[in-house]
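note to self: dont lose this again. the chain is below, predicted strucutre after it. 479 aa total, dont forget to put it in the shared folder this time
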Amino acid sequence: MSASNNSSKIKFGTDGWRGIIADDFTFPNVRKVTRAIARYLETAYNKNQPVLIAYDTRFLADQFAHTAAEVLAAEGWSVKITDRDCPTPVIAYNARHLNSAGALMFTASHNPAPYCGIKYIPDYAGPATPEITDTIVANISGADDAPVSGNWKDKISTFDPKPEYLKFLYTLIDVEKIRNAKLKVKYDALYSTSRGYLDTVLEHCGCELETFHAQRDVLFGGGMPEPKGEQLIELVEAVKKDKADLGLATDGDSDRFGIVDEQGNVLTPNTVLLLLARHLVKNRGKSGAIVRTVATTHLLDNLAASYGLEIYETPVGFKYIGEKMRETTVLIGGEESGGLSVIGHIPEKDGILADMLVAEAIAYEGKPLSQLVEEAISEANGPLSNKRLDLHLNDAHKAAVIDSFTNNPPANVAGIKVKEVGRKDGVKLYLEEGSWILLRPSGTEPLMRVYIEATSADKLNQIATQMEQTINHLEPVTV
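---
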């Protein structure tokens, strides 16, 4: 008899399955999902290729990882598990470097402490594409959740993924240039997996460094492992107090970045993408396409046009950016939620590399970060103002909104004509003077996300007010 009766709660989102520890994220369900992944592996790899397993700093994440290792070993796979918690980009790089059958990463990324998650990373070192995750999901209902019997320990070994990753990382950044700049850097690890990685790289690059929260805390200090303003108050104060050149952070599994300029401003991911796209062309002489999701700033389109580069728009989810990176030469690919990768790197987002590239940009230009931001925005014909509304709607209301905007899109919003309607991911309204609106229902939460970019703060607020009013009026009538 099944040890678990809640496997119906296993839902794969844009980046694997996440759940609440001891509710749906349980040891039986981890065994079930791992066996579903094992069924997929048998169709794609040979058993002489190892499966890698890593985990972040969350409560029980290491134990969930060892449980998955036992399941895979019992299925006949040799397993290499990391010797400590590990950043997602680090295990992703090693998945390719070690000619593996891919990697399992136990993380809930930037989610609050009660959550854990698992995602499968194929051997190409980027997020699994939908055809892979669809296969894994289809395998779940027939997978067993029983404990492993027998002793398979001889098929499980531990390894240190750090040396090979760092060796590779140092080929992607100009270490000498950063050393010569003698930057003063504040780093908030946010109790994440980047501790022992990002600080090591900064010290290797000769930075004067002060580090905060560089220990494991499964409660993340009572906050969230998300490098946004409300979590970075201490970092901002330290940057301002000591007149540092910049402040750096990552999220829980280190695939997202957090950047604070010398004035204490927390930069938006949109701004950082623009800054680094310009830096890679202007200072590093790189070329290639710019890839962004539908929810990411169109300033990147303007910058691409000014440098004669291709621009590609993808659905939300780094797996689509990673897919494009495997298909063509991509200068930089990123998303407004804080992930990016660049030419020469793996097709996976990497907060450690992103942080170091910002330090490199300062080193090349010899100017304050705030000035570099102003120059990048000006060069891209900015500024543009951005906002995201997270509207709490039930499924029926979300469906009514998408149906209405799909079948009867408005002719204008806030007095601005709608010139085009895109349906790549949700519904995107392109307005005549360069503003745009994206309506995208969450697949896992009772939320309608409304992304807005406008040519002025006033227009942004007018559009946001009208959109909220229109959406509220579309609530279905309950009988």
